[in-house]
Amino acid sequence: MSNIARRGLHYIVQRKVADVVSKSSLENGQNRVIDASLSLIREKAKLKAKLVRNLGGAVATSALLGVPLGHNSSFIQGPAFAPPRIKEAIWCGSTNSTTEQGKVLDDPRVITDAGDIPIQDIRDCGVDDKRLMDVPPLRPLILGGDHSITFPVVRAVSEKLGGQVDILHFDAHPDLYDDFEGNYYSHASSFARIMEAHGRDQAKKFGVELHEMQTFAKDRAYLENLKLGEGVKGVYISIDVDCLDPAFAQGVSHIESGGLSFRDVITILQNLQGDIVGGDVVEYNPQRDTSDNMTALVAAKFARELAAKMSK
Ligand SMILES: [Mn+2]
């Protein structure tokens, strides 16, 4: 037998040993990888917060946290690949580094990046997504991922602040299914989990104010003069990119014609009065985007303007 053949045989024997590795030692190893990844995010967030404090003058800073979550999607996949594309577009040299109202994005007191949650590791290890709650930056600006992330983030923000928050939710869909296709944590159920409600009647019962596109022209003046967060701990803003008409954002999974224009959303945001304690930009699907990633730039501009509004 030649050396090569003997070596081959040796590897086959080794492989058989590896195949019978116990489930618990595999899980233990994966858990250590997850802990290390989450520790890295926490340490990064701590250092960034220290930098912001040392620079002085910041009451609140938006901290980007990418959540490449996709397994609660329905119909098609894709939002899991969004966070790096949105981040790339946020810092893209093709656009101005100031926001519309003059905040400088190069200033870490306006926007800083805490990293990305290791969703794939968490999922493979069977760890509940509730684990995500352990790592919120103080004022998280979440880049999804599918919309199911809003539930654990709002819960974490609310627990951290010790009370309820007002939620301003832009979407082509109310995401109020009790469960969707059997998934209790579906991206179509995030707001049902937040309010433990379902349907229009339940929305009424829980004090959810719904404004539909068909009455938007009539509601515009009211929506452009919102004052939220009074009597609660602040305002959380959730932007599903599919709230936009597909003319403005075709890179989404669930295209719904007749939606808002980008300017409609930005005007509502810019005029909003209230202390924004957290927010998310979700459901951008790079696999449906144009070849020049136009919708990534749209999602990025939402994140930039939201960061400007949050930071103070
Ligand atoms: Mn939607």
From TrEMBL:
Residues at which Mn(2+) binds: H147, D171, H173, D175, D240, D242
Pathway: Nitrogen metabolism; urea cycle; L-ornithine and urea from L-arginine: step 1/1
Catalytic reactions of this protein: L-arginine + H2O = urea + L-ornithine
Record note on cofactor: Binds 2 manganese ions per subunit.
A GO term for molecular function: arginase activity
Enzyme Commission number, as recorded: 3.5.3.1
Keyword annotations: Arginine metabolism, Hydrolase, Manganese, Metal-binding
GO BP terms, alphabetized: putrescine biosynthetic process from arginine, via agmatine
Swiss-Prot/TrEMBL cofactor(s): Mn(2+)
Pfam family, one: Arginase
Matches recorded under PROSITE patterns: ARGINASE_2
Family classification: Belongs to the arginase family.
Protein name: arginase
